[in-house]
Design a protein that fits this description.
Strand order of the largest sheet: 2-1-12-11-8-5-4-3
Structural class: alpha/beta
Radius of gyration: 19 Å
CATH topology: TIM Barrel
Distance between the termini: 56 Å
Number of helices: 11
CATH superfamily: Aldolase class I
Helix content: 25-40%
Number of strands: 12
CATH architecture: Alpha-Beta Barrel
Low-confidence stretches: none
Number of domains: 1
Mean pLDDT: 95
Length: 342
């Protein structure tokens, strides 16, 4: 093989034993998981906001941001459940660039996977301890999920991963909501097939084990826009897109029909300020049609302390080093406006 095996990393059980979760935090997470699951099953009419930086790049700024979200959650708790988006591993279109905290706990230093695993576990644990909010992360590497499986309340499978068998089967063994994004090509049927797989039982290979999964009834769709053959962004958050997916979903006979709309990425053409307008259009579609209101369970918003994005070497506190994000003041106003519209 044309690679070097650098070192054997600790298995997830060893990391969890070294950095355990307290009984108090376990109880808090159990309560939060039940509240979030109730939105997907239709027992709760609260609205979900999965909101936070494009990528978690430094612990201090992410925790500062998450603490701000906790204060905002208190103001909107009767209508909205906020799930902080703490994404610690980043898919890269070409494989180049910053791949997330799990690779580089310090973006200015060389990759160190062991330090990265420890750093992301510490970050997610501290977020719960300090804010009472359990968080979301992307399942970029299915085999790494177990390092955080006791801490997360929401998992997303990205547009480049949604067709991958291992992502689909691993999702079928989780007991928290897993959002399946539409692929970059935009085909809704690919995303729906991923949800079918995630909601079904499977026997498969995982981390050297023969496993049997019981199916995840909380697997659902995320619309994030797509790209055409010329690389141009094609949004899919409009009313007509939602209704088309609603009808396709019904024909599949899936459990807990649910949709989260990602208002950035190809839906905004990465024009981060457009997230405000797009969010409000989706909320209007929900008010217009009760079917849309019952189907669209939440929004995914890329937000940080400072507007926009930067290069790593610029070092502006709380500004994204990957995709541009909505700054705190605009994000806070948007969340309050969404709550008022519900």
């Amino acid at each position: 093989m044309n690679m070097d095996f650098l070192r054997k990393l600790p298995i997830p059980a060893e990391i969890k034993e070294q950095f355990p979760m307290s009984a108090e935090l376990k109880a808090l997470k159990e309560k939060r998981d039940a509240e979030i699951a109730a939105v997907f099953t239709g027992e709760s009419d609260k609205f979900l906001l999965i909101i936070g930086p494009c990528s978690a790049d430094r612990e201090d700024a992410v925790l500062d941001y998450t603490n701000r979200l906790a204060g905002l959650q208190e103001k909107v708790k009767d209508k909205i459940i906020i799930i902080p988006r703490i994404y610690t591993n980043k898919p890269r279109t070409t494989g180049q660039g910053y791949k997330g905290m799990i690779h580089q706990p310090d973006p200015s230093q060389k990759p160190d996977m062991l330090e990265g695993i420890i750093a992301v576990r510490r970050l997610h644990t501290r977020a719960i301890q300090e804010t009472g909010l359990t968080c979301a992360d992307e399942m970029l590497y299915p085999e790494n999920h177990r390092y955080l499986s006791d801490l997360l309340s929401y998992v997303a499978v990205g547009a480049r991963s949604v067709e991958n068998q291992q992502h689909r089967l691993t999702s079928s063994g989780l007991n928290i909501p897993v959002g399946m994004k539409n692929p970059t090509g935009g085909d809704f049927s690919v995303m729906l097939n991923a949800i079918v797989a995630a909601q079904s039982c499977h026997t498969f290979l995982y981390r050297g084990w023969e496993c049997y999964s019981h199916g995840n009834p909380l697997a659902h769709a995320i619309l994030r826009g797509s790209s055409n053959k010329h690389g141009q962004s094609i949004p899919n958050y409009h009313y007509e897109d939602i209704m088309r997916l609603y009808e396709m979903y019904q024909k599949k006979g899936l459990q807990n029909m649910a949709l989260v709309i990602d208002v950035n990425h190809a839906n905004s053409d990465k024009k981060y300020l457009e997230q405000i307008r797009i969010s409000k259009e989706v909320m209007h579609s929900r008010r217009y049609n009760p079917d849309v209101a019952s189907f669209v369970k939440g929004l995914m918003i890329e937000s940080y302390i400072e507007d926009g994005c930067q290069k790593v070497e610029e070092g502006v506190y709380g500004r994204s080093i990957t995709d541009p994000c909505l700054g705190w003041e605009k994000s806070q106003r948007l969340v309050l406006d969404i709550a008022e519209s519900l």
